[in-house]
Design a protein that fits this description.
336 residues, alpha/beta, TIM Barrel, 8-stranded parallel β-barrel, two-stranded antiparallel sheet
């Protein structure tokens, strides 16, 4: 089998956020506690006997939160939920947060690799650094991203750990940080580019718009987002086409849009997610897309009807929505 035949036969690597807490522009959406036994049962069921399904989890660094983050990491480690880890940077809900202590930030990254590196398939430095009301609101985020990626790659190499190192992003929009990719190109340099193993992209088609898209419009929207990243933004930043894109957060919550007050049904969730995932799979070779990671496994709080609390393909009691079995079937059909 030649290299192109191998690529054609290769599917997507699937992943999923397995916990319940969801970040929102207004703080955190929370609800009933996570049940790690039920999480493990669901992940095993979705994965089946032969397929990969990487858990994707998050630590958010501030100096004040460091000990709490290591407690979270210990819990993730015991539960086997450290496959793909993202380290976010800064408290986006605190506009008075002091500037980051860069040495402490880099030391935190080193500690994470030293303590948990053998359990990590990948480490993403920053989650949404170009989103203006999240990490992108911090004036230090570009330096934290650049030096964080370089430090993570160096640390992984020194310990001979095969951890893929990347960083996150969101699509261009009025909410995105202006000139982010130009500034990344100006500040990055060869050492940074050589340290990047993937670029994560978080996007939610037909979630925050006032008017819902028709199902037939979904593929074009997905393709436009991913082509814009590959053909425009990454080119601007000087990141070569050989660096894979990962769809690191994508989902379609149920409940109501808090602005438009439009009901989002369980049945529509299943249909939209399948359309999105099949479109990404169709584009994976042309655009070099390696991963699809769903946000997420269960609702934060199914009793609250706003969409921020209902991202899951399961309810908060771990009962299945229709999208659960649809996602399971897609993993078996399209996954590695």
């Amino acid at each position: 089998m030649n290299q192109r035949e191998q690529a054609i036969s290769s599917g997507l690597t699937f992943g999923i956020y397995p916990l319940s807490v969801a970040g929102t522009p207004f703080g955190l959406a929370v609800g009933p506690q996570d049940n790690y036994e039920k999480i493990q049962l669901a992940l095993r069921d979705l994965r089946g006997e032969t397929k990969k399904l990487m858990p994707r989890n998050y630590l958010i660094y501030t100096r004040e939160w460091e000990s709490k983050m290591f407690s979270n990491a210990d819990r993730f480690s015991r539960a086997g939920l450290l496959g793909d880890l993202t380290i976010g940077c800064g408290d986006w809900t605190n506009q008075q947060e002091p500037g980051i202590e860069l040495a402490s930030w880099l030391d935190f990254i080193r500690k994470v690799i030293n303590q948990y590196g053998t359990q990590l398939a990948s480490l993403q430095i920053t989650n949404e650094p170009n989103l203006s009301f999240m990490e992108g609101s911090k004036p230090y985020i570009m330096q934290a991203l650049l030096e964080g990626v370089i430090t993570a790659k160096k640390e992984a190499r020194e310990h001979n750990l095969p951890i893929k190192i990347g960083f996150g992003s969101v699509p261009d929009s009025p909410a995105a940080v202006p000139h982010f990719w130009d500034n990344l190109a100006k500040s990055g340099g060869n050492t940074f580019i050589e340290s990047v193993d993937f670029v994560g992209h978080n996007f939610y088609v037909d979630v925050f718009d006032d008017q819902p898209l028709e199902l037939k419009e979904i593929p074009a929207s997905v393709e436009r987002i991913l082509r814009n990243l590959r053909d425009k933004d990454l080119v601007t930043a000087g990141i070569p086409a050989s660096v894979p894109i990962r769809v690191t957060e994508n989902g379609w919550p149920t409940g109501k849009n808090p602005v438009a007050n439009i009901e989002r049904t369980y049945e529509q969730q299943a249909k939209v997610l399948e359309m999105v995932i099949r479109t990404i799979h169709d584009l994976r070779l042309e655009l070099n897309i390696s991963h699809y990671e769903l946000f997420g496994l269960r609702d934060a709080d199914s009793s609250k009807d706003d969409l921020f609390h209902q991202y899951g393909i399961m309810r908060d009691d771990y009962s299945k929505k229709p999208a659960y079995d649809r996602f399971k079937n897609l993993i078996q059909e399209l996954g590695n």
